[in-house]
Structures are given as C-alpha cells and as structure tokens.
Write a structure and sequence with these properties.
Helices cover 79% and strands 0% of the residues. By secondary structure, the protein is mainly α. The chain folds into 2 domains: 112 residues, Up-down Bundle (Receptor-associated Protein); 119 residues, no CATH class. It is elongated and about 100 Å long.
C-alpha cells in the first residue's frame, strides 16, 4: 500500500474493508444463485465470488503501485538532471533535491518532499533516499538511488554522477520503447487470436454441437412409435435412446458452450498477462488489459453465435 501511494489509509482498515466486502459479495451470490442456476451451486458460486472480490482488491493495490512506479521512472532522468544543474549552480545536495520538487513531475514530487523533510529533520540523506526507494516499486529507481548513495559515501563529483545515471536511465527507456516496437507483430497476433479468432471458432463449434444434438434427438424420436402422453419424451430420455442406437454417448451442447466460455475467459486473461510481459517486462502490468479483452471476446462470441445461427436457419429454410 505504501508503494501504491495509499499511505493515508491504514493497512488494517483496508484489509478489514476488503474482507467485509468479499464476505458481503459472497452472501449476495449465495442468495441470488438459485435464480440463475441450480441450488447445488450456491456454495461454490459464493466461494468463487469471495475469491474474485479478494483478488480484485489485491490487484487494485498492485496495479496502483506499478502505475505509480512507471510515472516516477519516466520523469526520474529529468529530475536527476535538474538536481545536477542545481549542484553546478552552487547549491548543496539537500537544497538541489528540494528545488527539483516541481508540480509537473507528479508522484515523484511528493517523494522528493518527503526526502527533503526527513533530511532537514536530521536524518542522513543516504537513509532518506534509501527509504524513498522502498516506497517505490521500481528496480530502476532502486539502482539509481544505490549509485547516488555510493557517490555520496565516496565523496565523488555528484553533478557528473547524476548526469551519467540520468543518461543510463534514458538509454534503458529508449531500449524498452524499441523492444515494444519490435514486438508489435507479436502483440497484434496475440490480440487477434484471443479476441477475434477464438470466439469465432468457438461460436461455430457450439452452434454445430447444438445442431448435431437436435438432429440426433429428432432421429431417435422418429424411430420410436408415437406416445400418447401429453408430455411426450424428454430430451434426456431421447439422448439416452440416441446413445443406445449409436453406441456413443454424446456430449451435451450446453457443456460444450460452458467449456467455450471458460476457454475464452482463460485465454484472454493470459493474453493480457503475456501482453504486459512483452511490452513492459512485467506480467502484472497486463492485468489492466484482461477485462477489456474478456469483455470484447465474449461480445464477439455471442454476436457470432447469433450470426451463425441465423445463417444456419436461412440455409435450412
């Protein structure tokens, strides 16, 4: 929570709220489950809702920490260059750091203020900078501060050291942008396969399964003498008769549809993680893409099912 910028909120209070909200969502899912499915699914759905809610609160903190670290990494070279210019102008290191706290630098401005406040309060500047690196979830920031602390401890020329660290950070950022550009084709392929191709193929498969099931049931029904009972023969009974005639137990089309939905969900979840790993080097940064991919792919699946169903009806007519 400190890395995510939630210092104003107590960790115990946030954890308590997360647990309370997860339990409340679980109870709601428990009571609403019979309206959408069998009552036997009450407890599994409640547990699943609680788990999803808990994961959501955890990911909210982690994603905020990653977003905040990314913003700090982007402006850190400029901050170091400003500190270097202030030192060359005759300022002490403490005053040079304080003068670099500008509003346009975003989250790092608050970190610089905390470092300056701790330093003016009597804490050694090396420890103040080290504490700052613990509040930012960034390996680049930790390495930069470690180099700066080594320069302070050894008494080196700080202005030159800061310029070299800033140049190294800019080179690393440029290399990361080149990698993202180079891997653009992989990104496009992953998005196309997960969001477009998979839903289209699954929509055709599920429609074919439903059509095959209806055909098998109609054949089994037509091979039997007519029954005078008002209810006729149920679908499970006809399915059993179809199994007896063909010797093969068919998989219900509803199970195939559930498998398709689960596959689409899992595929797009991992597509988002892989996208974050390719573009940013961290899988967690791709979590923000997963909900968009899942929603778009499910919409594509249901729209494609309607279109394929209408096409089948038109051909059969």
């Amino acid at each position: 929570m400190t890395e995510g910028g939630f210092e104003a909120i107590s960790a115990r209070a946030f954890l308590g709220f997360s647990v309370f909200a997860s339990v409340g969502i679980a109870w709601i899912a428990f009571f609403l489950a019979p309206f959408f499915t069998d009552a036997v699914w009450r407890i599994p759905l409640a547990l699943a809702a609680a788990a999803v809610s808990a994961v959501f609160f955890y990911l909210m903190v982690v994603m905020n920490a990653d977003t905040r670290a990314k913003k700090i990494e982007l402006v850190l070279p400029d901050v170091l260059q400003i500190i270097s210019a202030n030192i060359r102008a005759g300022m002490t290191l403490e005053n040079a750091i304080w003068s670099a706290a500008r509003p346009e630098f975003g989250p790092i401005r608050e970190e610089i203020k905390k470092v300056s406040a701790d330093t003016y309060g009597g804490k050694p500047i090396e420890k103040s900078l080290r504490d700052m690196s613990k509040r930012v979830k960034s390996e680049a920031v930790r390495r930069a501060i470690k180099l700066i602390n080594e320069g302070i401890r050894l008494g080196g020329e700080m202005a030159r050291l800061l310029d070299e660290v800033a140049a190294d950070l800019k080179s690393a950022q440029q290399l990361q942008r080149e990698i993202a550009t180079t891997t653009m084709m992989y990104t496009i392929f992953i998005v196309f396969a997960a969001v477009i191709a998979a839903p289209l193929l699954f929509s055709i498969s599920t429609q074919y399964a439903e059509l095959s099931e209806k055909t098998a049931l109609q054949q089994a029904k037509s091979s039997l003498p007519k029954i005078s009972s008002p209810g006729g023969i149920s679908a499970p009974a006809l399915s059993g008769l179809a199994t007896r005639f063909t010797g093969v137990k068919p998989i219900p089309s509803e199970d195939i549809k559930l498998f398709a939905l689960a596959s689409i969900f899992i595929t797009n979840l991992f597509a988002g993680l892989i996208l974050g790993l390719i573009r940013y080097g961290k899988a967690m940064r791709g979590v923000k893409y997963a909900p968009v991919f899942i929603f778009a792919s499910l919409a594509m699946f249901f729209v494609a099912r309607l279109m394929v169903g209408a096409l089948i009806v038109g051909v059969s007519a």
